[in-house]
Design a protein that fits this description.
VC0802-like, about 40% helix, binds adenosine-5'-triphosphate, 2 domains, binds magnesium ion, about 400 residues
Length: about 400
């Protein structure tokens, strides 16, 4: 006997009454997309869970990919058998014996198919007795068992599962609309992107690049971070904005101390223009309250004033240490700490105003004509598509 299926239990989406169908369809599409490299599998979704027929594909790798897909609460390997008592007993015994270090178990039967002749209360002890008879040193504990053997009797067949693997939780990416992520090469913004995706948001990324002050390697780093993020959902477009000329002018003409605020406001303005072109309805940043001069309440007030779009700031209340923990867990940290400069650190005065006055910023800005720089920059945005597929495993690679 072998495990021939994977069962996927939905996360929070099971609570969402009328959106349920849309959520399940999106999750189905996301799972199919992430598992493209397993051509033999079949995915089937129903109202309360999803099943993958393995058809011989590697379950370990599939489970670890699925553990990154948002909207999944938990997963289990499963055996599918006929609705027949002897087959169910044999599969239950297999599912128990497959797990190590199990001293206590409990059987849970769900009988959605009321035509099955034995009801769940009767079936529980029958299976339990069978498992006890055929194992040693294992007892039943209905309150805190080491392992729960689940028997799910459906219309056409029965699924038997035991161990559960934790899913990533959240909502399926694509069910909460799209957002434009301001992605630097730092630690924070990739984590912000991850958390937005976890809430079902599809990401477009924008990166402000100031060659020759920021290097090609700095841009590569942003693309590598995007690649990592894409593994949690979907292909991501990175809009690379050539920011040098505008930054230089701001640096030259805005009084010392206010240039950082004006630069940030321009980043916001440009982001809103791009978002609106793309039909994206919000902007996401990696800001965290009080972390640096641009992230004080006064700075955020002055910077936020240039946009009417909602700005998602998933990290706003988080400590750096918690942000780093997530960055490590999701695999962006080691990329983020590569030592390349960001455009924001290059032209920034050594002592930027931590409490900029919005009126003053607006006055200084009104004295400065950035129209040409803006037009030029908008004409020269480079869009790079980052695929979420694992290139090394792409069979086409061998052909070239
Ligand atoms: P991060 O680690 O994300 O760079 P940070 O703590 O270094 O954040 P800042 O440099 O002040 O903070 O940037 C605040 C936010 O502004 C970033 O989280 C990011 O969303 C955005 N940002 C900064 N630099 C850039 C850039 N070059 N391109 C796009 N967005 C940027
Ligand atoms: Mg930064």
């Amino acid at each position: 006997m072998i495990y021939d299926h994977i069962l996927i239990r939905y996360g929070e989406l099971s609570l969402k009454g009328k959106n349920r169908k849309e959520f399940i369809n999106q999750l189905h599409e996301n799972v199919r997309n992430q598992l493209k490299k397993f051509p033999l599998i079949k995915i089937h979704s129903s109202r309360d869970r999803m099943s993958i027929t393995l058809n011989g594909e590697n379950p370990t790798e599939i489970i670890s990919i699925c553990q990154r897909i948002f909207g999944i609460q938990s997963l289990s390997l499963a055996i599918k058998v006929e609705n027949d008592l002897e087959s169910i007993k044999a599969a239950a015994l297999f599912a128990l014996k497959e797990e190590e270090n199990v001293h206590t178990f409990k059987v849970s039967v769900r009988r959605a198919n009321k035509d099955f002749p034995i009801n769940s209360q009767e079936l529980n002890p029958i299976i339990g007795a069978h498992l006890l008879r055929n194992t040693e040193n294992i007892t039943v504990d209905v309150h805190q068992p080491d392992l729960e053997v689940n028997i799910d009797i459906r219309k056409a067949h029965t699924f038997i599962t035991s161990a559960r693997y934790l899913g990533a939780g959240g909502l399926p990416v694509g069910t909460s609309g799209r957002s434009l992520l301001l992605l630097s090469g730092g630690i924070d913004s990739p984590v912000a992107g991850y958390l937005a995706m976890r809430r079902g948001v599809k990401i477009e990324a924008i990166h402000f690049h100031s060659p020759p002050y920021t290097s090609e390697a700095a841009k590569e780093k942003v693309l590598d971070l995007t690649k990592k993020l894409s593994e949690y959902g979907h292909d991501i477009n990175v809009h690379v904005v050539p920011f040098t000329a505008m930054q230089q002018k701001i640096h030259r003409e805005i009084p010392y101390g206010y240039s950082m605020t004006v630069m940030r406001r321009m980043m916001m303005k440009i982001s809103q223009i791009i978002a609106s072109r793309l039909g994206v309805l919000s902007i996401t940043t990696g800001e965290s309250l009080g972390q640096v001069a641009s992230q004080t309440m006064e700075s955020m007030h002055a910077i936020n004033a240039v946009t009417s779009y909602p700005v998602l700031r998933p990290l706003i209340t988080m400590d750096k240490s918690s942000i780093i923990k997530i960055a490590e867990k999701i695999g962006t940290y080691s990329i983020s700490i590569r030592p390349f400069d960001d455009c924001c650190t290059i032209f920034v005065p050594s002592a930027p105003k931590t409490k900029p006055k919005k009126d003053k910023v607006e006055y200084y800005e009104s004295q400065l004509d950035l129209k040409n720089e803006l037009a030029e920059l908008l004409d020269n945005i480079e869009v790079i598509n980052i695929s979420n597929q694992d290139q090394e495993n792409d069979p086409l690679n061998d052909l070239f």
